[in-house]
Amino acid sequence: MKPKWIGLDVGTRRIGVAVSDALGFSAHPLCTIERRGTGADVAEVCRRAEGEQAAGIVVGLPVNMNGTAGPQAEMVMAFVDELRAATPLPVETWDERLSTSAVERVLIEGNVSRRKRKEVVDKLAASYILQGFMDSRGVKGEAEGAEP
Predict the structure, then answer these.
(1) Are 15 and 122 a contacting pair, CB within 8 Å?
(2) Which of 33, 106, 126, 145 could be 7's S-S partner, Cβ–Cβ 3.0 to 4.6 Å?
(3) Backbone dihedral region for residue 67 (phi beyond 0: left; psi -120 to 50: alpha; all else: beta)
(4) β-pairing verdict for 27-34 and 14-20
(5) Among the listed residues 116, 120, 73, the one whose alpha carbon sits nearest the alpha carbon of residue 96
(6) The dihedral of CA 89, 48, 104, 135: what is its sign?
(7) Residues 6 or more apart whose Cβ sits within 8 Å of residue 80
(8) Residues forming a β-bridge with 31
(9) Residue 116: which pLDDT band, with cuts at 50, 70 and 90?
(10) Mind listing the pLDDT tens digit for each residue in 49-104?
(11) pLDDT of 104
């Protein structure tokens, strides 16, 4: 078994959470955390990461289409700073441009109702973010410096 990674899609109302599988090949939706405040949210993410025995956390960074950081990206970076201060795990960011819209498009094409889409879009977006991170970096479940 390889160490798992946790993926996050941090929004203003909810945080989508995904986890990599035990083999480090694919990302799977885990849950959605309703936002209660940065401190409580960071504590809940840390609790989930510990429960999954995660080797690291990747957070989707919603940069603008031109690559600049807007207000939403700044909010996410503030969350990342708090998360890094609260956990010894590596916390990485990943460009998540269009991840939520890509997931929404797939759900719409699959005739998923608007109500059901609202329930699952955040954790599916987190899974999309985590999968992209793993694929591009060749993470396959291994944290930097971890034994393969």
Answers:
(1) yes
(2) 126
(3) left
(4) antiparallel
(5) 73
(6) positive
(7) 59, 61, 91, 93
(8) 17
(9) low
(10) 999 999 999 999 988 777 777 888 899 999 999 999 999 999 999 888 666 666 66
(11) 63
